[in-house]
Amino acid sequence: MTPSTHWIVGPGALGRLIALRLAERVPVRLVGRRPLPARQTLVSPEGKTREQSLAMARTDALPMEVPAVVHLTTKAHAAEAAHATLAAQLPSGVPLVLWQNGFACQPALTERHDGPVLCATTTEGAHVQADDRVIHAGHGHTFLGALDGSNADLARALARTLTDAGLPAEAVDDIRIRLWRKLAVNAAINPLVARFTIRNGQLRDRPFRPMVERSINEVAAILAAEGVTPPGGSGLEGWRELVWQVIEATAANRASMLQDVLAGRVTEHEAILAPLLAAASRHQLSAPCLARHLQDLRLRTQKLAEPPTTC
Ligand code: PAF
């Protein structure tokens, strides 16, 4: 029998959005470390509510089923460990889709996975309201492709399935550039809103606006050296336009990094800032603002891991 079930591994907001949408078209199984209610509610950006039952599995007790595709939707810092657990139990050849932000786990997992690997980057917005309720906050667009441009037919087929399920998607042959573009936007916005506990739109005001500009200058210089172009293709102005457009469009949002900080979770700084700073050092560029953000967020993560002091 041909495998037909899409496994979604990592039942955060994006994972559950993908699962609930795909379940309208193909068999789906949501895989996570802890049990969740099988009956899940999705609230659409238009406010429509839809309840659906999803097949579930725990990562440590996977069923004897060969998935058609595995969508890895964990946070970036959890992706490699989640993949190691899965890989031990999967036959070779199962396609893997990496939905992580940043540019950290993608090259390593592309190398390590015993089967085709696609990367995805999306502007779909979602957040979790309860263990059984996901809010699809805003419609977006998804790009899919392999880092080396291979498996184009698979990327096209998956893009079609996602599009038919209500998540518009497109297969591309330059996913590496698109991952770096999203990383650039995340690097300019997320550390600042997380540090000052503000919504994205507040970055337009003083004293934050010059801070955003400084981050954009550093990001633009690093990416120019890496050969990554902004969507308009015109250097610093292109990056400024992209970042300020996103800030405008998401003015009312609390960015994912701020949500992580508020919830006491580890942030995705290693996937977003560390690859940029590694590129800066390769090209002998200095990036003091980005370096300071990374240092602050690393310090915060260390503190999260420390046991509370008792006296
Ligand atoms: O990380 C996020 O929340 C989003 O990618 C973005 C674009 C910064 C908007 O909040």
From TrEMBL:
UniProt keyword terms in alphabetical order: NADP, Oxidoreductase, Pantothenate biosynthesis
Catalysed reactions, as listed in the record: (R)-pantoate + NADP(+) = 2-dehydropantoate + NADPH + H(+)
Xref: Gene3D superfamilies: N-(1-d-carboxylethyl)-l-norvaline Dehydrogenase, domain 2, NAD(P)-binding Rossmann-like Domain
Keyword Cell cycle: no
A GO biological-process term: pantothenate biosynthetic process
Domain Ketopantoate reductase C-terminal: 174-292
Broad enzyme group: oxidoreductase
Pathway connected to this protein: Cofactor biosynthesis; (R)-pantothenate biosynthesis; (R)-pantoate from 3-methyl-2-oxobutanoate: step 2/2
GO MF annotation terms: 2-dehydropantoate 2-reductase activity; NADP binding
EC number: 1.1.1.169
Keyword NADP: yes
A GO term from the CC aspect: cytoplasm
Domain annotation Ketopantoate reductase N-terminal: ranges: 8-148
A Pfam entry, by short name: ApbA
Function statement: Catalyzes the NADPH-dependent reduction of ketopantoate into pantoic acid.
Assigned protein family: Belongs to the ketopantoate reductase family.
Name of the featured protein: 2-dehydropantoate 2-reductase
Originating organism: Halomonas daqiaonensis
Upper taxonomic lineage: Bacteria, Pseudomonadati, Pseudomonadota, Gammaproteobacteria, Oceanospirillales
